[in-house]
């Protein structure tokens, strides 16, 4: 039996999970589930990276302890993966004692190899990336190219790793093993980086407290968070405490990650492993980014989309399918709701869903609730359908091996399309009018059910929930979990079984008509606009206005002392929500009496039909600051 060990990166717990994280995790899940169908001994690892400076700061900002903060966000990742049907075998938390001990053992192994020394680090550091930057890697004014925020200058005495010593071995490794880093474009990036020269790297942080203590020096600070994090791939399978499991799964077959962390996985990690005298992973695959309007989805950039909300709205399978079908895995892909809905309606509701509905409805009409017995030798287009079905698996394999998920699904959809066409060409509804053709009708519908059973196996790595529902509807309840590629034998579908409850598995998503956005007023000049004095104002206190449940009376300070305003926001905000908030005030509005209270200004809000959101500022600015 082959083994297959696949990993996702471990995600930072300063961040809430978003569709970028779900993208990698779903891809890894597809690989794991596919290999289980092949009968492999699979270990699928995901988890969270809970240490480092950005976490330390994020917790402090929230007034929480670091551990409390991590516990909170780790729980969100875990429940998201449950919702997304992620079948990981282990969930690593780097704050676990097991991991910390293994990370220290790993550091010590590198130290014992003579590859660690103490020196001063002075240079740029981007906290959201948790990485050191050279000046020429930053944009103007020392802005980090990924997070578009200024990097910080740090100077500290740290432990360094002799990365430079491994330059030649790394180069040879990557040159001689074309599959080690994929896709090709990423491999070339790494090669040119190595060729341009590798410098030793700091692997501890003396100014950071929240981390794994450096094992060789009580005053040495903590391990650089990346060294701590990378060692998760071995700590999870027993590097510190379970040599049998380690030997069973290590080296990893594939580390999946996005291109921004390729250097850590393609250069630093293999060099550290060489130093610690451990085998190297077989492949590192750096996929593209999910973007929104061309920008990487990330909390720091502020454009996150919550996969959990998408799954609530459209179903887990639809989200998983979209990720795997819409984008070329190695390249960036822009997420849009329109393309999502279009893809789901056309591929899932129209193609696959329709094949299932039509087949089962025809069986119901002609054979009650029972899957009919196939009668007679193949005729008409039967053989073409059977051949298409039997050829899917060998065609699928090379695409999955290259992580070309979209191409793999396209191959599977050849069977969906062929089966729908088969049904059209064979037109059993016409034959059913002639009682002497009943056997032929039975054979045609049986063949469609058999194609659906094959499809339930093929789609199961991508859409485990839908696969299960297909299996149940065609009457194989309970056997869903047992299906593997070994079940892809035409004719294995038992006849005479009772169909399950028939329901559309992918209801069509009705597209709301876009509201026509008409300019609400005629044009104004800049001078007209300048007449409005907009200011940042802090809400000092807030209370309900008597006799109405719509209004709040707020005391605000726009830099010139307290004043009262009345705002129609009570249905959307409680007084406590607003105290301390910085809002945008129209400061030169003529005072007016509202319900007996004199209102000296107005706050700005986005006003929808059913919701309202008060405008605020995303950085702290003093009260009275002009807004324009
Ligand atoms: O880098 N598009 O954690 P992280 C696609 N803790 N994938 C995305 C993405 C996007 N817009 N945004 C995030 C870290 N990802 C470290 C990893 S591993 C030893 C330590 C995915 O929370 C993608 O897999 O910033 C990326 O590599 C990972 O999340 C980074 O997650």
Q: Tally the beta strands.
A: 25
Uncertain parts: none
Structural class: alpha/beta
Count of helix runs:
20
- First CA to last CA: what distance? 67 Å
Q: What share of residues are in beta strands? A: 15-25%
Task: State the helicity in percent bands.
Answer: 40-55%
Q: Which strands sit side by side, in order, in the main sheet?
A: 3-2-1-11-12-7
Q: Give the integer mean of the pLDDT values.
A: 93
Description:
Helix 5 runs antiparallel to helix 6 and helix 12 packs across helix 13. The longest helix is centred in the middle third of the chain and has 31 residues. The protein is flat. The protein has 20 helices and 25 strands. 40% of the residues lie in helices and 18% in strands. The relative contact order is 0.09. The site of ligand ME8 has 21 residues, from strand 1, helix 1, helix 7 and strand 11.
């Amino acid at each position: 039996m082959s083994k297959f060990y696949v990993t996702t990166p471990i995600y930072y717990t300063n961040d809430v999970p978003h569709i970028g994280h779900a993208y990698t995790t779903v891809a890894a899940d597809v690989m794991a589930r596919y290999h289980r169908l092949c009968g492999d001994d699979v270990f699928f690892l995901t988890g969270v990276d809970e240490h480092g400076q950005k976490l330390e700061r994020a917790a402090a900002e929230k007034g929480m302890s670091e551990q409390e903060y991590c516990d909170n966000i780790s729980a969100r990742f875990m429940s998201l993966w449950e919702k997304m049907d992620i079948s990981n075998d282990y969930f690593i938390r780097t704050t676990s004692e097991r991991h910390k001990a293994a990370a220290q053992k790993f550091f010590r192994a590198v130290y014992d190899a003579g590859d660690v020394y103490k020196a001063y680090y002075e240079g740029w550091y981007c906290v959201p990336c948790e990485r050191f930057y050279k000046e020429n890697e930053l944009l103007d004014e020392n802005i980090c190219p990924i997070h578009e925020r200024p990097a910080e200058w740090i100077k500290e005495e740290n432990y360094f790793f002799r990365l430079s010593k491994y330059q030649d071995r790394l180069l040879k490794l990557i040159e001689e093993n074309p599959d080690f880093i994929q896709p090709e474009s990423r491999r070339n990036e790494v090669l040119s980086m190595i060729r341009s020269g590798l410098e030793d790297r700091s692997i501890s942080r003396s100014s950071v407290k929240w981390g794994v203590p450096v094992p060789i020096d009580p005053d040495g600070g903590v391990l650089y968070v990346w060294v701590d994090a990378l060692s998760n791939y071995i700590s999870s399978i027993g590097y510190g405490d379970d040599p049998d499991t380690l030997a069973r799964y290590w080296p990893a077959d594939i580390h999946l990650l996005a291109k921004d962390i390729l250097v850590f996985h393609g250069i630093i990690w293999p060099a550290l492993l060489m130093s610690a005298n451990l085998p190297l992973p077989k492949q590192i695959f750096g996929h593209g980014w999910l973007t929104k309007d061309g920008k990487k989805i990330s909390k720091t950039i502020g454009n996150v989309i919550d996969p959990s909300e998408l799954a609530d709205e459209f179903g887990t399978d639809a989200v998983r399918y979209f990720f795997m079908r819409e984008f070329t895995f190695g390249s960036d892909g822009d997420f849009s709701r329109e393309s999502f809905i279009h893809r789901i309606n056309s591929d899932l509701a129209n193609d696959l869903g329709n094949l299932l509905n039509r087949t089962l409805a025809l069986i119901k009409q002609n054979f009650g609730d029972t899957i009919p017995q196939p009668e007679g030798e193949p005729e008409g287009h039967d053989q073409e359908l059977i051949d298409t079905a039997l050829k899917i698996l060998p065609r699928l394999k090379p695409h999955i091996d290259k992580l070309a998920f979209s191409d793999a699904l396209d191959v599977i959809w050849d069977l969906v399309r062929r089966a729908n066409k088969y049904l059209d060409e064979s037109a059993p509804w016409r034959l059913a009018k002639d009682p002497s053709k009943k056997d032929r009708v039975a054979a045609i519908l049986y063949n469609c059910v058999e194609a659906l059973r094959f499809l339930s196996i093929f789609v199961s790595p991508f859409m485990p929930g839908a696969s299960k529902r297909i299996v149940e509807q065609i009457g194989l309840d309970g056997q869903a979990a047992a299906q593997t590629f070994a079940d892809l034998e035409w004719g294995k579908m038992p006849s005479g079984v009772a169909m399950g409850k028939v329901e559309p598995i992918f209801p069509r998503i009705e597209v709301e008509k876009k509201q026509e956005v008409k300019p609400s007023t005629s044009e104004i000049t800049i001078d007209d606009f300048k007449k409005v004095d907009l200011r940042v104002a802090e809400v000092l206190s807030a209370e309900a206005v008597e006799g109405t449940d719509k209004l709040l009376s707020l005391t605000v300070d726009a830099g010139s002392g307290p004043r009262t305003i009345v705002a129609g926001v009570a249905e959307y905000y409680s007084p406590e929500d607003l105290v301390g908030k910085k809002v945008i005030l129209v400061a030169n509005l003529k005072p007016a009496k509202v319900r007996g209270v004199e209102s000296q200004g107005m706050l700005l809000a986005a006003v929808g039909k059913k919701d309202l959101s008060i405008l605020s500022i995303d950085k702290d600015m003093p009260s009275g600051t002009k807004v324009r």
